Amino acid sequence: MRLARARRRREDLSKGKDLSERRRVVDETSAEIREWEDWLTEIEDDGLIATAKKMDIDLDDLPFRENVGNCELGPHYEMGPFGNVFLRFESRMALRKAMRERSPAYRKERRETWDLVLKGVTLAIGLVGAMTGLVAWLKK
Q1: What is the pLDDT of residue 134?
Q2: Under 8 Å CB-to-CB from 58, ≥6 apart: which residues?
Q3: Per residue in 59-83, pLDDT tens?
């Protein structure tokens, strides 16, 4: 739907409409592009925050500037012109920095957890094998 509309606008521009019509189309297209960029930023920020929560990084622990933005949204968020809510640039950079710093320890913790799980599974399989052998030996 939007792709067809964009193609129609491009065709309208190429047909030689007057300058005011061209400017209107360019302005509408620019606004739509900005809306899509804000929407994409909002989705990326949601993913970034979810990943940070998995890594035990809380957004409230990050530094922020005082008296900035909308109090309802909190110090780390801002609202775009189209109603999208996303992280402030400073908060996004601080969150990424905290994630980079925490990443080696997080990977080590995950690796240790999986090693423990694999050792438990190996132990269970070994016990099942030992019990099978014991039952077979006792039946003889």
Answers
A1: 92
A2: 52
A3: 877 777 665 555 566 777 888 888 8
- At 18 the three-state DSSP class reads coil
The mean pLDDT value for 85-92 works out to 85
Contact status, residue 57 vs residue 98, Cβ threshold 8 Å? yes
* Residue ranges of domains in the chain: 2-103
Count Cβ atoms within 10 A of the Cβ of residue 39 and give its class: 0-12 exposed, 13-18 middle, 19 or more buried. Answer: middle
| Backbone φ, ψ for residue 79 (5° rounding) | -105, 130
Full-model pTM: 0.64
- CB count within 10 Å of CB 131 equals 10
Start-end of H helices in the chain: 2-14, 19-54, 89-139
Q: What percent of the chain has pLDDT over 70?
A: 84
Cα 132 from chain centroid? 48
